[in-house]
Amino acid sequence: MREELEAGAVLLRAFAKPRGAEYLQALEHVARQAPFRHMHTPGGGTMSAAMTSCGALGWVSSPQGYAYTTLDPASQQAWPAMPPSLLDLAQAAARAAGYTHFTPNACLLNRYHNGSHMGLHQDRDEHDTTQPIVSLSLGRSGLFLWGGAERHSRVRTLMLEHGDVLVWGGPARLHYHGIKGLGPHAHPLTGWSRFNITFRHVVAPQ
Ligand code: MD3
Ligand code: FE
Known about the structure:
Elements: E1 2-6, E2 9-12, H1 20-33, E3 50-54, E4 58-62, E5 65-69, E6 71-72, E7 77-78, H2 84-96, E8 106-112, E9 118-121, E10 133-139, E11 142-146, E12 156-160, E13 165-168, E14 177-182, E15 194-200
């Protein structure tokens, strides 16, 4: 089911559900090489969602700021390669949403437990807003906050379920969004955890 949420933003309900277990295996393969960790923020806080990355570039937060890097600071090694199954899924979803030339080179993996959330924010570290962001939700459901162009724009909520894919581009690419919390039920494949994988095209740091 393809639902246009606003200009540029498409929700593909259950798009990834048939292969959900396969995508979770790919996620575990990444996390064995680059474990999930709780990053620190420039403001002195710690993010309640645990994160890791795969692909040529990975996203890191530290007291010094936010950046995409070619090396995982935890290992000083390159980030794990993007699993082909995940890359295929992201490109198929982008195509289904009307974005034909999506070439993600960064993939951010988020893990939420009880009490994890992600405050309203914009994704603007990619330095390329011509390509969309594709998001894959796996496991326990999450309450997505969907805002607008400004921090104080009206915010709507949407439950994201296992296998749902969001494609966010065009005029909606820089809109505010977040995760308020998790659904009440455990998921047969992930228990009390929710995972989200976002695929991005990032302009390589100089
Ligand atoms: C709307 N992740 O990793 S995914 C993030 O569920 C992030 O973990 C959330 O926000 C999560 O940055 C939400 C859906 C999403 C992702 C990127 C967007 C929605 C977006 C970028 C622009 C607008
Ligand atoms: Fe985001």
